[in-house]
Structure formats: structure tokens, C-alpha cells
Amino acid sequence: MSMGNTSGRFQSKSSEGLGPEKKTIEVVVVDKSPLILTGLVNLLGHDDRFNLVATAADGERFMEALDRFQFDVAIIGWNMPYLNGQGVLQNMQKREGPNPRIIVYTGNGAPDIPRQVMRLGGAAFCSKTDQPAQVVDTVQAVAEGRMVFPFMDLSRPGSDPFSTLTAREQELLASLSRGRTNQQIAADLTISLNTVKFHLKNLYGKLDVKNRAQAVACYLNASGNM
Prior knowledge:
By secondary structure, the chain is an alpha/beta fold. The chain has 2 domains: 5-143, Rossmann fold (3-Layer(aba) Sandwich), CATH 3.40.50.2300; 161-224, Orthogonal Bundle (Arc Repressor Mutant, subunit A), CATH 1.10.10. It has 9 helices and 6 strands, in the order E-E-H-E-H-E-H-E-H-E-H-H-H-H-H. It has helices at residues 34-45, 59-68, 85-94, 113-119, 132-143, 167-177, 182-189, 193-207, 212-224; strands at 11-12, 25-30, 50-56, 73-76, 101-106, 124-127. Strands 1-3-2-4-5-6 form a 6-stranded mixed β-sheet, sandwiched between helices. Helix 3 (85-94) links the parallel strand 4 (73-76) and strand 5 (101-106).
């Protein structure tokens, strides 16, 4: 498969040559990172259970692919340009007709993301720390109609302050937990230092904490209970 997604255009792969006697799982892969896209293409493209229909670099291109291709499962990122994973799932809820099953595959460690994915109709959640075999098994399971999520305590869905965080705030919180400074976060996310401070102020308010140390403690405590 040609990998030219850094421009944001989606790339398609024809299923021509696949025998009609063998039903394969049609898959689309979406991630902002060309490296991740290449890895997933290599992982799934050499397994005859799957047929890669298209790849895309952002959520907007994925929504275009929904209108142009038919496929069974999509693996999408959570933090993507133009339209993030949360936005993709919200937009899919508004679409008429059948939708592919969605697996969110992310390195964002914010503890409430799996809950959000489930609430918005996603079929599965995978972390980029998972083993490749686990990702493949998840695609297979989702194609068979199963849901795959880490353990979550759903008894108090309305009391979780993390559910109020935006995707950007979740990303910043995960960065704080890794010990990144404001300057480093700004460089990592290609945003200004003032924008980082603006998001952190909102983040602290939603978590009812006063500083980054308290925010990280709140995050780690929540992660330990997931």
C-alpha cells in the first residue's frame, strides 16, 4: 500500500484479486502519525484475514472515506488534527444507515477515554502500549460483533470529573503525568505557551485542583482505579 498520508489525503487499496470464496475483514486505519499508520498497515496487511481498504491521517479524511468506501472495522486515533476521535464518533451517531465498528487506538493515557469511547458508540479501545497480537485479536473480535474494553467501574458514570475534559485537556493531563514542562508540552503539541496555560487553567478548574502536582495525583489515582 502506498503511504502518502502526511498531506492529509486518504489512500485507498483495491480488494481486486481477493477470491469471493474467502470473506475478509475490510479495515480502514486512521492516525496522525505516518509511523503508526505504516506499523498498522504492516501488521494487518500481511494477515490474510484482513483487507486494508484505506488509510487516512485525520478525522475529516476518515469521514470522507465513510462516504466513499464500504468496510467493516476502522482503527482510529483519539488525538487527531481537524477532527479528533471524539468528534468522529459524535458525527457517526448522526449518520443514517449502517456504520463500521470503531476501535480507538491511542497513546493518550487519560483514564476516562475508554468510557467516552463506549458512551459514544465505539466498539473497542486499544492502547499503543498493547502488544501487536492484542490489536489484531481486537480487530477480529470487533468484526465478530464483540466489544473489547479494559475494566471500567461504570457504577458512577456521572461523578467522574475526567468525563468533562476535552480531548486537548486529556492530552495535556497525560503529558503532565509524564513530567513534561509547559514549554515541552507546547513544543510537543505545536501550540503556544499561552495556549498551554489556558488549557491547564481550565483543566485545574474541572478537576478542582490548584496546581499540576494535584492534577497528576488525581490522574494517577484515577488510573489506578480503572
